[in-house]
């Protein structure tokens, strides 16, 4: 188990702004237990907590936690990262994830501990013409996805102190489900990259989600008492193909600036929905109204990550 503490535990008390504009103060750091240590969101949460003086993390390798261990760690909340791309996952992996979440649910119910379950926007299998509001519970046709819906129903019915956080497709530079890492590797090695141009979504930075989750849980610890379902996603709906194209163009520009002439892999557009594009766009109004969390523009987050990647790439070349 990894333990990530604040940089300055003797700092000022955390200030928690509420939607009403009132300020509450909590003197001690909020302690979070994060599962699935290698997940890109878990790594992003660790980085964010390390920058702050009001949050302590305990990070578990496992994807579930027992009642005994939960009582031993005694966190203020349990956070479960999402299963990446459940539509494409093996059904046994989806079932295993659902069962692990339900194990965590039982432990949280017995201890009264708040539980945060992050889920993929792919549960909205058929999308919608308009942005999808938080109160709309997904109703997928796929049996594997239906198993996840049953888990969500259990959480809503049995444990009031929960946050179900639905996310757009996560991207990051490291960790399981990071997407951007695999995409950069494929482009750099000249492999063909295939992406749908008729599936529209909002790419979401794992770093921005980590900032939002910690902010939300800080406010909950200060007494916000705003449990339920929330949507978190990047701004500007875009197709998978367009997102991939932007990555390729920006990568080529940065490499050229470093004096590198790489033959990047080619892009191939796929079409799965011939009548009209499938739009899977999350309405994130509630998380703004309740917690003051703004969506982050995915283009800015992508540019920042590519700058970080190129700096590491340059340093690696100089040390070679």
Tell me the layout of helices and strands.
Elements: E1 2-4, E2 14-17, E3 23-26, E4 30-34, H1 40-51, E5 55-59, H2 67-73, E6 77-80, H3 91-111, E7 115-120, H4 143-158, E8 162-167, E9 170-171, H5 180-188, E10 193-196, E11 199-201, E12 204-205, H6 206-221, E13 228-232, E14 238-239, H7 240-257, E15 267-270, E16 278-280, H8 285-291, H9 298-319
Parallel strand pairs: 4-5, 4-6, 6-7, 7-8, 8-13, 9-12, 10-15, 11-16
Antiparallel strand pairs: 1-5, 2-3, 11-14
Structure description:
The chain has a single domain (30-319), classed as NAD(P)-binding Rossmann-like Domain (Rossmann fold, 3-Layer(aba) Sandwich). The longest helix has 22 residues, at 298-319. It has helices at 40-51, 67-73, 91-111, 143-158, 180-188, 206-221, 240-257, 285-291, 298-319; strands spanning 2-4, 14-17, 23-26, 30-34, 55-59, 77-80, 115-120, 162-167, 170-171, 193-196, 199-201, 204-205, 228-232, 238-239, 267-270, 278-280. The model is unreliable at 1-27 (pLDDT under 50). The chain is an alpha/beta fold and 320 residues long. The strands form five sheets. The protein has a seven-stranded mixed β-sheet with strand order 1-5-4-6-7-8-13, with helices on both faces. Strands 14-11-16 form a three-stranded mixed β-sheet. It has a two-stranded antiparallel ribbon with strand order 2-3. It starts with a strand and ends with a helix. The chain is built from nine helices and 16 strands.
Indicate the low-confidence ranges by residue numbers.
1-27
Strand content: 15-25%
Oligomer: single chain
Report the C-alpha radius of gyration, rounded: 20 Å
Mean pLDDT: 90
Distinct helical segment count: 9
Order of helices and strands: EEEEHEHEHEHEEHEEEHEEHEEHH
Specify the overall morphology.
globular
CATH topology, by name, is Rossmann fold
CATH class: Alpha Beta
State the helicity in percent bands.
Answer: 40-55%
Which strand order spans the largest sheet, edge to edge or round the barrel?
1-5-4-6-7-8-13
Shape-level CATH architecture: 3-Layer(aba) Sandwich
Could you describe the largest sheet, including whether it forms a barrel? 7 strands, mixed
Keywords: NADP, Oxidoreductase
Domain RmlD-like substrate binding: 93-308
GO biological process, one term: O antigen biosynthetic process
Enzyme class: oxidoreductase
